[in-house]
Amino acid sequence: MQQQFEGYLLLHNIAKPKNIGTIIRNAAAFNLTKVFMIGKQGQTKKKFQIAEGFSFFGNHGTYDQMNFHLFNNLKEAKEYFVLNNIFVCGVEIGEGSQNIITNPFKGNTVFFLGNEGTGLIPEHKALCDHFVYIPQYTQKTASLNVGVASGIIFHHFAQWAGFTEQQVEGEKFLDPEKQKEEKERKKQEMIELGREKKKQKIEQQQQQQQQVEQQNNIPQDKIENESKNIE
Fold this sequence. Notes:
This protein is α/β, with parallel strands linked by helices. It has seven helices and nine strands; from the N terminus they run βαβαβαβββαβαββαα. It folds into two domains: 159 residues, SPOUT methyltransferase, trefoil knot domain (Alpha/beta knot, 3-Layer(aba) Sandwich); 53 residues. The strands form two sheets. Strands 3-2-1-6-4-7-5 form a seven-stranded parallel sheet, sandwiched between helices. Helix 1 links the parallel strand 1 and strand 2. It comes from Paramecium tetraurelia.
């Protein structure tokens, strides 16, 4: 059986809340395991401040579905990645960057996306083990929006890693938790339906029994009078 690798996101230096929300949503859709963030002092507080900022800008509730891990600085992050055999893949156009179509992944991978304006600065590039870029087929735009780019990158990694495609119902992908809840709801409905049918059957049997008893308890004089009327 082929080993299934894991994907991660290093979310740092993205300026626009809407892009942050979109990237989080893409990370959830393409099964990235965890989101890493860089903080300074009061990291936990910073996390919730960031969450509050982007929760209304495109993540569509996926923030609650993701696991987060906060580092004090980039050095601490790099040490963690090395210790846990996670390759840092920078998303950047430039010399030495590999076309994403070739799936140049090496194993467990954390993706580091550049700032909307400056891209990955030298300090950030130093953290990376390799780089990928998304090919374009015109010169009409210099690059893609970082939120759009994240979806393309994560999708390629998901295919390379062999992630299982989620089931579809109607025009949406099923949420495993909601699917479980729906299954349990239908189970309870069947139980209640069974109870109702059993109750109705018992009531019907009781009514039939009462009718038999009523017939058996008809007074004798009433039977004689009915016989005379027939004559």
